[in-house]
Amino acid sequence: MAAQDLVYPDSLIRCIFTEIRTIAVVGASSNPARASFGVMNFLAGQSYHMVAVNPGLAGGKIGAIPVYASLADVPHPIDMVDIFRNPAAAGLVVDECLALNSLPKVIWMQLEIINQAAAERAKARGVEVIMDRCPHIEIMRLHLPPIS
Q1: Residue span of the structural domain in which 7 resides
Q2: Per the domain annotation, does 147 fall within a domain?
Q3: Cα torsion for 85, 21, 17, 131, to the nearest 10°?
Q4: Is residue 46 part of a domain?
């Protein structure tokens, strides 16, 4: 599936950002030059409850955001998982999401990340999947206000 074939109605994107509260960023970085750092901090600034997943930084914090080694280590349910990993690794992250006791509502794969097989596995379990999009860009494009 090519990126141009991925169409998500604005109403769906609005609904996602209205209903979610907790977002896990898989592949989070403490490097301010990395996109994952910027997106994670932008989302935190929109009042979402953020957690970072990065085994190399686990047990610490990125700013005020706690870092865990894996999604399974996060001690509370996650509404959306934002994946900053390559397409092949994204499939493993989706499988990790699907192994959680409480499934996320949304699995979001960042720009240039498309894994159709993983998306189908998630959709079969009732999880919404967005691929090849950036939440920061979508929130700005749709002029969505911070959550309350």
Answers
A1: 3-141
A2: no
A3: 20
A4: yes
| CATH number, domain with residue 107 | 3.40.50.720
pTM (2 d.p.) = 0.95
Average confidence (pLDDT) over 55-84: 98
Count Cα atoms within 13 angstroms, Cβ side, for 141.
Answer: 12
Question: Is the pLDDT at 1 greater than 90, yes or no?
Answer: no
The answer to the question of residue 146 being in a domain is no
**Three-state SS for 108?**
strand
In eight-state DSSP terms, residue 56 is G
Domains identified in the chain, total number: 1
Closest CA to 96 of 114, 69, 65: 69
pLDDT for res 69: 98
Residue-wise pLDDT tens digits, 20-59: 999 999 999 999 999 999 999 999 999 999 999 999 999 9
With CA atoms as reference, report the closest residue to 108 among 42, 45, 41, 16. 16
On whether residue 19 sits in a domain, the answer given is yes
